[in-house]
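Hey, sorry to bother you again with one of my protein questions. I've been staring at a protein lately and its backbone has me curious. I owe you a coffee for this, so here goes:
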Amino acid sequence: MPKRNALGAAALAVGALGVGAAAWGIGVERFLFTVRHHTVRVLEPGAAPIRILHISDLHLAPLQRRKRDWIARLASLRPDLVIDTGDNFGSPEGLDAIRGALSPFAGIPGVHVHGSNDILAPAPRNPFVYFRGPSGVSPETPHLDTAGLDAFLEGELGWFGLDNEAVAFDVRGQRLRFIGTSDPHHGYDDWDALDASAMQLPDGSLTIGVTHAPYRRVLDSFMDRGSDIVFAGHTHGGQVRIPGIGALVDNCDLPLGQSRGLSTWSHGGRTIPLNVSAGVGHSIYAPIRFACRPEVSLLTLAPRR
């Protein structure tokens, strides 16, 4: 075969592979919702296990009925606690979809923090800008109905907001302390406010850090404040991953190998578990997931051996 023909055939093959991958990611994989199961041994010996449903990055929009209904059915897992690490809105009109997805969790204890898409509306972006570093925000970006979201999550579901705040309550007979930040991706985290709130708390058997974006400075700050485990989202697990390689970007400074799932974080002579959810959704302007299924995590906190 002449060299020119061989190059043309190779280009066609690569193009066909790209089209097939895009068709899979847009038409199939973004609907392959998955529950990841983990056991984390952080409780005192003899303590009752605690099942935590970690949800993140729902990015719900009005017409996403399949995703909304799948999230709603997760209530049948009967977790002891729900942790929502933010980015619930997929569009400015998404509040009714959020209600439809999360209303079945009423009566189950929960905590939540804001991501950027709980405060600022999503906007179209060139996906290649993520290779230059974390995304920014335009001053013209409209604000979302954050007050309506909080009224639903806190007023109707009874969850606690942890945006630069701390709270303690009992789960399965154990006093848990929670410390959380508002979205660090756009600098909404306020550690002075969080410290002032945490000073009011009693001691507990476990301190849980909750944030949206797992920047290194945030993880280190949680550890400086005695966190025993940290939950985060934001990264979408890379959203488009290369098989055998993994995530190419994670929109923060977390090592790419930790862009999704359960790992550990070390700082100040300690090492603790870190769970980063790859999330359930995607921006309405980038409706694709490839080699990175939409997910939630069901973690069982178990006694140490």
